[in-house]
Known about the structure:
Layout (H helix, E strand, L loop, with lengths): L1 E8 L9 E7 L6 E10 L2 H8 L8 E2 L3 E9 L11 E5 L9 E5 L3 E3 L6 H20 L11 E4 L5 H12 L3 E6 L2 H9 L4 E4 L5 H8 L5 E6 L6 H6 L1 E9 L13 H5 L4 E4 L2 H4 L3 H16 L7 E6 L3 H9 L6 E5 L1
Parallel strand pairs: 9-10, 9-12, 10-11, 12-13, 13-14, 15-16
Antiparallel strand pairs: 1-2, 1-4, 3-5, 3-7, 3-16, 5-6, 6-8
The structure holds NADPH dihydro-nicotinamide-adenine-dinucleotide phosphate.
The site of NADPH dihydro-nicotinamide-adenine-dinucleotide phosphate has 29 residues, from helix 1, helix 2, helix 3 and helix 10.
Amino acid sequence: MAKSKAVQIRKHGGPEEMELVDVEVGEPGPGEIRIRHKAIGLNFIDVYQRSGLYQLPMPLNLGMEASGIVEAVGSGVTHLKAGDRAAYASQPPGAYCEVRVMPAKCVVKLPDAISFETGAAMMLKGLTAQYLLKRTLPQGGLQAGDFVLFHAAAGGVGLIAVQWAKALGLQLIGTAGSEEKCALAKSLGAAHMINYGKEDFLARVKEITGGKGVKVVYDSVGKDTWDKSLDCLQPFGLMASFGNASGPVAPFAPGILGNKGSLYVTRQTLFTHIATRESTQEMADDLFAAVTSGKVEIRIDQRFPLAQVQEAHRTLEARKTTGCTILTL
Ligand code: NDP
């Protein structure tokens, strides 16, 4: 048995609903581990789960990403042992805490070359960039030189995708909400950046691509960017919707996809990709190689103590962050 502080909500709502509470943590059951965290990742999905955009049963312990040391393993767990350095992107939530028991299948060993803070910052965001760029492909795949459009390119997932896309030879056109964010993403490898707070991103995409449009749009902004994003695509292009930072996309009639050039639309979630231990390990190995080779730098631009989690959420929702944010213990 262990004691832990954990961030909990009793009902959906604003950041003020989050409370630091004391919880008892038991022994891991079959297929589970107990992990003592060293650092915790902050993600926009935590905001959706807190606000109620994604409805979950109450009370709810928040948090989807962390790193730490394995303290105990339950029966049937063979890929981890007590004392291992480890990291994860988890389903179910509950990562905003010091110690927890959780399913082992989403946890992987963290290579010695990667720090706990980097491990905590990069699992959910890095595995998302991995599946978007390598497993969510347009017809015929992506080739070096292809144009793609990536919204919110200076954010957590965004800056990882910018660097990885460059390593793959893609011409990534990014959007971001300020000149500073655009300059940051450009310095890390975006071929072009558009300040979509000031400029019409559709007109700029047409200009940059000589009127052709892009093969894929990666859209996590949702409501505010959806319509124009469809118009940025080449015929047979792929709209990869993966988030709703500005609100959910309104229902639409599939006929518009035909009118706009026989487009494809997909709405994916990381948790389908990491549903098995094998796929989680394969994707994590690819991410670890990208990071340890230096192709992808995991930028931690904000740190908040766990007790200041309300402030961390306010900062993320106010679009004041760049790159990754972690909660420290
Ligand atoms: P980010 O660090 O990217 O933060 C979100 C960014 O979205 C903001 O910084 C802001 O950038 C932009 N944004 C645009 N409109 C708004 C708005 N109205 N309110 C707030 N932000 C806005 O977050 P993450 O890296 O954690 O996640 C990025 C996105 O990817 C999220 O939407 C998240 O839900 C999604 N996601 C989806 C996954 C999946 O598998 N489906 C997995 C992981 C993440 P700017 O100011 O530059 O516009």
